[in-house]
Amino acid sequence: MCTSKRRLARSVLLCGILLTSGTGLLGADDGPLGLGRPATEAELRAWDIDVAPTGEGLPPGQGTAQEGARIFSSRCASCHGVTGKEGPAPQLVGGQDTLATKHPVKTVGSYWPYATTLYDYIRRAMPFPAPQSLAAEEVYAVTAWILAQNGIIAQDAVMDAVSLPQVRMPNRNGFTQDPRPDVPAK
Amino acid sequence: MAHDELTPSDPPPVESPAEGQADGRSAVSRRALLTGAAAWAGATAAQAVWSPLEAAPISASKPAPGTEDTTRIPGHPPTPYGKRSAFERDLRLAGATSSLAPLQALYGILTPSALHFERHHNGVPVIDPARHRLLVHGLVEKPMTFTLEELKRFPSRSRLTFIECAGNSAGEWHKPEGRTAQEIHGLMSTSEWTGVPLALLLREVGAKPEAAWMLAEGADAGAMTRSIPLAQALEEALVCYAQNGEALRPEQGYPLRLLLPGWEGNANVKWLRRLKLGQAPFMTRDETARYTDLMPDGTARQFTLVMEAKSVITSPSGGQQVAPGFVEIRGLAWSGRGRIAHVDVSTNGGRTWQPAQLQDPVLPRCATAFRLPWRWDGQEATLQSRCMDDTGYVQPTRQTLVSVRGVNSVYHYNAIQSWLIAPNGTVHNVHV
Question: What pTM did the predictor assign?
């Protein structure tokens, strides 16, 4: 996404903004205001649920597609379809090689650049009627099932905090940076 | 203007019970049919609508509200929380996960809070502000939590800004899909927002210099998350608790939301409960699977955060009825990059253009109202508006936009809107 040079430039800029807007907004006083209180370990544990592409944030536990099949059919298939293709909720499986066609089908298999995003999203937002109701092992298993159903991993591949970030998504290099303004004035 | 649109089949104005329903009008008609018409078989349709909504049934001695001489009857006493006149009926158009603002029925640049568009990913949560906390952590010296009361003690900033959903007008990529300005462009609204500058909040926790991205997370049933590039966001971002002078509306993120002036709506995370600083984007679902713009070659643009300049004539617009003679052409223009510098209007499908007048205030990253006096001669006419912002960016024609991006990018559609006025005065969404 961004080179380390770009990152450095960004953080220098960030420091600058923090400093200048600090003085600009507060006048002479530059120190913290003393508002708020330190976050507790319990607060962090309860809310810090995001998973980065590096795998940072993935919990202990593991699962396979075989285990995930049962969870998907009981907790997900009613909306996403028995094979993950039928809907009515968004199609999760298939669509490979359609992105450059007239009717692109964007699914986990055809479009998503990171497998970690799948864990993160299912953990926080699915099943739709009862988000955050799955245990870590169940999220790993159902994540594995969706990946295997897309032909990205084997049925018996074990997904855990080490293996999931290593899964190579077919559309990993399909994204570009914002080139706008890109449309010429007529 | 709302009254210009009345057609004989429309029910007369009703009290607010119908408000907030997606199909307020038909709900009223149904009620009128079920109770009114049956009970008051001899009454006119207009009277029948009133009967179920009034405390007392209509009788010969009590005329329908609004028909009496108001100088002879005492009015109602003051009320603790006001509501609009029962004669005003413009509503948001609500679907399953969004509702559209009735742009063609609004005046000036501010959207009334109750009509501000909505978009959410698993409903509007009910949050007690006394229990709500904002957690700020990650690459910071001191991870901290803040209560609403603490956030309100910070130095505050207010600003007028539009918010537009990245998917606004998305139906237009393929064909003229929507009928009205509301149906096509209603995922855009403008409010005055008040809150804490993000920069001050980050100074309070001691943001580390290597922090370059910020994850913002909502307390809704999707725990919606987006990664925000800090260097671009910091100068203007606010953590907001107020909208148009009072607390945020629940649909707008009560009690706390992120405001990134000029950026796609989805990044302005609502029901904000957590900010986490990191070195790289977190690659959440809503910045990978969604809100990325698919190009004809199969690649997709990511982090296309700014909403580019766009304008739309709101009157006359689709679904309205124009009478020959004087017409004030009115509309809105906005740009996520800065101020609106100029708006041109065409009445002949873009062959010739005339500069429109801009209404003060003309603010950066805020809707700007424009107008042009015109005489409609009763002949077929195609109205268009084309805006330019202070970076020199000119709103593209649909043809130019599509020639660069194809028709499958879903998001960030900002092409010139064309309204065809037919000789009978009806107005239609067309692509020229």
Answer: 0.88
